[in-house]
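Subject: for your reference before the review

Hello V.,

The reviewers asked for a structural picture of the protein, and I figured it would be easier to keep everything in one thread rather than splitting it across files. Below is the amino acid sequence we used in the manuscript, unchanged from the supplementary table.
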Amino acid sequence: MKQKLGSQSLLHAFEQGRQLLVYQCHLVKRDMMLVDKVSIYLFENSQTGHVEAQMFLEDIAQEYLDSITNDILYQKDYMLLSVISLDRKIANLRCCRMKGLSLEERKNYPYEEITELFVSRHIHPNDQERFLSCTDLDFLRKTMEKQGQFSFTVRSIKNMTERYTCYWLDRSENMLLLVADDMTQELETDVLTGIPNRAGFFRHAEKILHQKTGDSYAILFFNIQRFKAINDLFGYDTGDRILKKIVELIQKSFLNPLITARMEADRFAALVNVKYLNLEQLTELLHYSYRDGNTQIELHERCGIYYIPEQCDLSVSDMCDCAKLAKNYISNQYVRPYAVYNEKMKLEYEGNSRVMINLEQAIEKQEFCVYYQPVYDAKTEEIVAAEALVRWIPDNQKPVLPGRFIPVLEDSGHITKLDAFVNQTVQEAIARRYREGRKVVPVAVNLSRMDLMDDHFMKRIWDNLAEKKIPINMFHYELTESAYADISDNGVRFLTNLQKEGAKILIDDFGSGISSFSTVRDYEFDIIKLDMGFVQRIGTSKKTDHILMSLIELAHRLDMKVIAEGVETKEQAAFLKEHGCDFFQGFYYAKPMPLKEFETLLDQ
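And here is what came back from the structure prediction:
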């Protein structure tokens, strides 16, 4: 295009420079997402001698994109940088350093085609759906309009963690800038200790195990005993220094760990070559005297060990769970502070988990039944009381033995729910017979240590007793010695008030624990129940017989009655009668039975 100009100022400028750039701008071609540079120059027509203007149109797409992305590229070494047109659905790659993706830079690709290529060749199968949803153009448009910036993380097929971030490049033209950077090391490193965290351990360990070197490996799972108390007593700074010291001890030890990681809090894991795993030395490693100025702290660790079999289908995460599970089976941490995983542990753990998961459902389905075992007067051999025992009978399955589920519920704290069910069932049964004018005997209900720490549970017992309007002496409550180990002040008051109102308090399994005498010294009981271990050994030695005779005499001197549990033979009953035992309970007289059978026995 040529144009005559009459402006004297333009002519003057031309005379000075003999050429003048009058106008220059950039235009975006919407259909191809390219850029043109428009320039207008003044020049002298050699034929006419007139000063004229001419416009030049240059394709500077690459130059333009380079200029606006250089600042970003210089800030960080990105793995990917792409310009995206939301309207035209085109992606222009400016940088791509991702393995397995041989893509040309500075080239426009249809957006859907390039994302599908990324998903199939680069993104981990478990994260492919997330990647597609986060890179959907409609989703990006709405999200960017609200937030102005958007980031998400996914894993690659190499299990590397990548962060993808979108910025507005030109909001008026709906153009985005998408960058990706490798966040693996940052996200897989524990900030405090500088070693890998859980995710880092899983990835590095899998890489080592997949190399198939022919060596044998094991995973060790450590934790520091009572570490919370250390933080509370000495402060978190001291706690942090201890954690760093433990890492140093493990890494520099005879174990020569291939990788050590902090899994969480005071828990660590290590992948080691079995040839370096010496269990005697491990015992020494797990005890350390930490000194900090004038402070000395004795640190005791526990360790679970999982030997990785040659053919193993477990993930590293599952292997760590096995090692962690083994740690829970350490019986004496001071003598042997480690344990080796075996399949029996897994079966027991799974069974315990099913017990806890199915508890409430079993109560609702009435799978738990209360059985009653009569207690007989030693002189008259008449039924004078009973003990309530719970049985679990799932639908169309064999009964679950109490020894299988009671300890699990006690350890987990779920026992209170079951005890509440048993207590209410017993009270309702006694209340019904009492209203009907039929024979009623006291029934003992077992209480656990968790019950005596639960104010709501204790209040519920009082409320139920008040509602039923039955003489409170119809109720006995049995506790083991362990229940008194952590008993609260409220628990002591609860039992004392029950006694004042007329209920009887029994101590169960007396003689089986090392603290039996201090327990009867410090707390008030109405009845002691001799541990069946003593009863079953009657006649086997004079020592056993004399101990049993002495226990009965001691109880009477302390104004307590005695129930002998586990009486199974005529000879045992005769011995106990001779030496003043007050009551018998055992298979020789009657086994635990359902309520209907027990009522029939009472009605006779």
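For the response letter, the relevant points are probably these. Residues 1-7 have pLDDT under 50 and may be disordered. Residues 343-364 form the longest helix (22 residues).

Happy to draft the paragraph if you're swamped.

O.
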